[in-house]
């Protein structure tokens, strides 16, 4: 073989190898690192909804010509395991973005590690203002979708005042709040006291069934003796049915029985214990009646999993993935500052029935949703009763006595 020809052939092979290597690098997946409590309905359905978003992006050709991937780790509702998950995703899995979240207590354990790596984060949980304080000012990489407790409280004040004005027979003067003893419940109680300061308010903590509790008799007996117009419990999905069963056992049926967990058991509506329980949330399947975007999300979830999404953490997690993806596409790069700039311009028409944008809250720069909805279980469905523009039903009042079920 001619030596000049051989030399030229070797050069071509080396060039081809270099091109192949460059193309291979460009084809590496863009990674989203998701952390959810997979044993809780919020984490189970939130992670599943995020996978739908990932699939949709890949079906459209990925991001920047590259596939996208979701790496999920279970926080197990443990601050230590939640923090370790952040560390692993950043160092071993080398993800580009952090998504997920539910518990404020877990997030308080994660925030110091997140601040070490400062990857763009789109967090769907953690309502406690203590988490916002831990994040601190000037952390432009941190985007918080879920309302803070004071956002939620302000929307509850607005909502209940509007409902009481629209339905004069509904009394909201005297309140009792039973709250789980962790960061979420304690912050909920403090916020309620501050925001409803012109009303009579009492409360007591309980140990959630999610962390080994489950006996609510003492707090329910105290609430019954207090005789509130509005009874609220703030805990987790594991508390929902036991609380109702124990309320029935002592014949505690306040005029308004309100539950405020981040998510409800998927089968809760099937129980007659659920009828006329009022709740807070950002989404319910009934929103399909007033939002085409909600219906599209719902149909996609049903098609993939053959089960109904039952918590607002599902569309919230779905939205988190798409919001980041759309910002990356607009930026045309993974450059952190460029993506942050595009995220701050977000106007995302969400399945929650509202357009998500970001603006400063009390401390952080990038707060998303600021309002919850007030809903009620009616005939096995969560119906929206406020805001009135999203309403799918009128409230049933008072709470149906146990003897009439």
UniProtKB/TrEMBL annotation:
Keywords: Signal. It comes from the Bacteria. Residues 29-378 form the Leucine-binding protein domain. InterPro entries: BCAA_transport (IPR051010), Leu-bd (IPR028081), Peripla_BP_I (IPR028082). Pfam families: Peripla_BP_6 (PF13458). Belongs to the leucine-binding protein family. This is Leucine-, isoleucine-, valine-, threonine-, and alanine-binding protein. It comes from Salinispira pacifica.
